[in-house]
Design a protein that fits this description.
alpha/beta, ABC transporter transmembrane region fold, Rossmann fold, 4-stranded antiparallel β-sheet, 19 helices
Length: 587
């Protein structure tokens, strides 16, 4: 169980992004310096134009005109070099911050329990990593830079305009509040629909992830048309939200451009009247109009990128929600208690008075008590919903009981660091997990420091070496997504080799042979027998061979232990076990 996704404020998001930027203070300072240098150079260009017009062109002095032209050229070169530096540094910062955010959020997600991913679809999480971080990258690397540059340019242009003509500058200042009105009114709507648009795109990603991963089921049930229709509906829903975002952003840009250009035209008219009256020179008017165009362009740029900035804030909020999601199950590192277990030694497990229920469900376990001796092989038998898999999840602390406790060698597992707890447990599931990596990396997934020789030894013990040796690149063969290049029995043996190499004292085994052919089952069963030596093993049983090899069998029904004993005893004494055995184990 996890805390629901929190509501976050723009302030928190901006502080979060700023904390990442502060890790690269040198580059940030260099980028700001380049930004100011470029802005000042472009502003000085107006003074060069004024000098060229009044001293060179109007006075008909070719030497002065040449000098002014050279000055303007030098200023332009400096401005271009500074622009390159600004663009490079800010783009680098955008890429770097985006990469750091991906790593930070991914690291946090790995600490969240499976219950979190049962509520939030994997496809949506993937969308937040891809599309949302790309938006942040664009905002930090480009939009933020353009906004800062435009603000600096606007302030500088306004100052130089005041120096050239206070009257015309007053006209500009009067026009500025009119420009701010659409920003104030429309920008929140842009941000709102930008976030909603990202959410809809995330829904699309989730649907694609789900349908393509289960493509065989989709095609087997000829559900292609239904999937196309469902996906098309989601695309259209995303488009409807995007249309609203586009509408408000376009309206924002159009309003600002209209107000800005109207103001510039009016100011140009007033300036021309002043030149005719002799109140200012042609060069001063040229410089003033140059600055007015720069100021108007800056406001227009701000209006354009403000939509991207709002979209970036919305995308950042979605990622920050993931980062600030707190799991209900936390590692207790303060006491740092771990059971004292020697390598290869088994662990005693005690389940004492445990109560548990899933959210919004009726209680599953009520005062459950089980004691498993160190080195014991315990088989769990029962119908679906009896609580077998839930017991595994409680042992690994994917969930915590509402009452009671679970102990390893006398120590409560809720007092142990999560990593220390789970390093005592190896798991082999009915549907083994094989990653899109090499055979080597798949086997040593639980023991990353293991040598190649150790991996090969574990593969031989799991009866996997023979088929691995026949692969194209043997242990360096890429197995494809979800081990698509392997058969079911081969994947099981890879998973068992992984557990053998990890060499952990507790083994949780969801019967690994139930879906295999006779030959594969025999080989996998031999591998399992080797794996269980010297370990405390709990097996969810689906086959007779499993229960016959068990030291003890527990019959579970609706979260309660109804009977305990070996196979022969239970066949005689327990009706429920006998019925289950005849239907499942002996079939």
């Amino acid at each position: 169980m996890t805390t629901p996704l929190p509501n976050v404020s723009t302030k928190h998001v901006l502080l979060w992004i700023n904390s990442h930027l502060l890790c690269y203070k040198g580059r940030v300072i260099a980028a700001i310096f380049a930004l100011f240098t470029a802005a000042i150079a472009w502003l000085l260009l107006g003074q060069g134009i004024k000098y060229a017009v009044d001293s060179g062109f109007i006075s008909a002095s070719s030497d002065t005109l040449n000098q002014a032209t050279l000055l303007v050229l030098i200023i332009t070169v400096i401005a271009c070099m500074a622009t390159y530096a600004r663009f490079y540094l800010m783009t680098w910062l955008g890429e770097r911050v985006s990469a750091d955010i991906r790593k930070q959020v991914y690291s946090h997600l790995l600490a969240l329990p499976p219950s979190f991913f049962a509520e939030l679809r994997t496809g949506e999480v993937i969308s937040r990593f891809t599309s949302d971080t790309t938006v942040i990258q664009t905002v930090v690397g480009m939009s933020l830079s353009m906004t800062l540059r435009s603000i600096v340019t606007f302030i500088g242009a306004l100052a130089l305009m005041t120096f050239s003509s206070p009257l015309l500058t007053f006209c500009v200042v009067v026009a500025v509040p009119a420009v701010l009105v659409p920003i104030r009114v429309l920008a929140p709507q842009v941000r709102r629909y930008a976030k909603a648009s990202q959410d809809k795109v995330a829904d699309l990603g989730a649907r694609i992830d789900e349908s393509l991963h289960e493509i065989m089921t989709v095609q087997a049930y000829t559900a292609e048309s239904a999937e196309r229709m469902h996906f098309s509906n989601k695309v259209e829903m995303a488009m409807e939200v995007a249309k609203k975002r586009i509408h408000y952003r376009s309206l924002l840009i159009g309003c600002i451009m209209c107000i800005s250009m109207t103001a510039i035209i009016f100011i140009a008219w007033v300036g021309a009247r002043q030149v005719l009256d002799g109140a200012m020179t042609v060069g001063e008017l040229s410089a003033f109009l140059f600055y007015a165009v720069m100021a108007g362009g800056s406001v227009a740029t701000i209006s354009e990128v403000i939509g991207e900035v709002q979209r970036g804030v919305g995308a950042s909020e979605r990622l920050y929600e993931l980062l600030t999601t707190e799991p209900d199950i936390k590692s207790d590192n303060s006491q740092d208690i771990v059971p004292k277990v020697k390598p290869g030694k088994a662990v005693q497990i005690e389940i004492e008075h445990v109560n548990f229920s899933y959210p919004n469900s009726s209680p599953l376990f009520n005062d459950l008590n089980i004691k498993i001796q160190a080195g014991e092989r315990l088989a769990l038998v029962g119908a679906s919903g009896a609580g077998k898999t839930t017991l595994f999840q409680l042992l690994m602390r994917f969930y915590d009981p509402s009452a009671g406790q679970i102990l390893f060698n006398g120590l409560p597992i809720n007092k142990m660091p999560l990593q220390g707890l789970r390093q005592h447990i190896a798991v082999v599931t009915q549907e083994p997990v094989v990653f899109a990596n090499t055979v080597l990396e798949n086997i040593r997934y639980g023991q990353p420091q293991a040598s190649d020789e150790d991996v090969i030894k574990a593969a031989k013990q799991a009866f996997a070496h023979e088929f691995i040796d026949n692969l194209d690149k043997r242990y360096h063969t890429q197995l494809g997504e979800r081990g698509v290049k392997l058969s079911g029995g081969q994947k099981q043996r890879i998973a068992i080799a992984r557990a053998i190499l990890a060499n952990r004292p507790i083994l949780l085994l969801d019967e690994a042979t139930s879906a295999l052919d006779a030959k594969s089952e025999r080989m996998v069963q031999q591998a399992i027998d080797r794996l269980m030596v010297g370990k405390t093993s709990i097996v969810i049983a689906h086959r007779l061979a499993t229960v016959q090899h068990a030291d003890r069998i527990l019959v579970l029904d609706k979260g309660k232990v109804l009977a305990s004993g070996d196979h022969a005893t239970l066949m005689k004494s327990d009706t429920l076990y006998r019925e289950y055995a005849e239907l499942q184990l002996l079939s």
